[in-house]
Protein 1
Amino acid sequence: MKFIVFFVGGEPTKEEKDEHMLEWKKWIESLGNTSVEYNNGYPYGQKAVIVSSKGTNTYKPSGNDGSGYMLIRAESIDDAAEVMGSAPSIVNGGKIILRELMDKKM
């Protein structure tokens, strides 16, 4: 099964940023010892817009919007949740939203 993982909250302070990035690197490397297949994920940038039927407007992201995402494969959502539960953002007080992706192409 395919899943998208949204990382929300758990961001470090400016002083903790370097250590936090090392934690992420170690965690990503540890995924190689699990049953989950993954990509390295992508942090969100600072630029954002909202697109609607009324046009496009600039948008200032907040911590509630999340900090990045990752695409993974796992046998089940429970397996994915177990592995993702040790992510640095969880340890730092954040949360992860897992969503199953459909295999059908539109």
Note: Strands lie at 2-8, 37-38, 42-43, 49-52, 55-58, 68-73, 95-101.
Protein 2
Amino acid sequence: MDDRQHVHRGSVTLYTDCFNSEEIDNLRKVLTKNFDLETTIHNKGINNAYYKRIYIKKDSFENFKHLLVSHIHKSILYKIKWKF
């Protein structure tokens, strides 16, 4: 979880840089089917390489993050803007 990323505006980016397009599409389908998450793809360029990252929209993540809390160490719950 600690990749220096945290929720700023309520949305979340999954760093899927080392997955191919088919794997990313499959993951998006699973997130939609199993958790009703609305996602989009963001293309990022780093050092002349381009990566696809999954972006979870704010409203979807708000409805999902309660499922994550028991799996995240208390010291980094601030990253998902969880209030005790």
Note: The mean pLDDT is 82.
Protein 3
Amino acid sequence: MDANHIETLKNRLASLYPMASLTMDQPFNSNGNWMLDIIVYGRLFVVSWSALYVSDFGISTITEDTGYGEGPDLVVHSLEEAENHIIKLIDQEFEYE
């Protein structure tokens, strides 16, 4: 399976946030969702991506109030938008540490 887009995002975030834990799960079938869990500064962010919708990324901030299957907080339509939004979320969290 080709995960170039989400692998690229993972690699970019790993270079920007070497202290982050980045875990990627691949789908069972080629049209399923790839999931990237990002744990940084004690917070969990999840990015979903599917080869079916190559340019779309779903982004969620996971808290104790987040329910299973709620869907993403935001859908962005490019790798650059996804990267910029995640950086913004992480940097906002860091401001409060």
Note: Residues 4-95 form one domain.
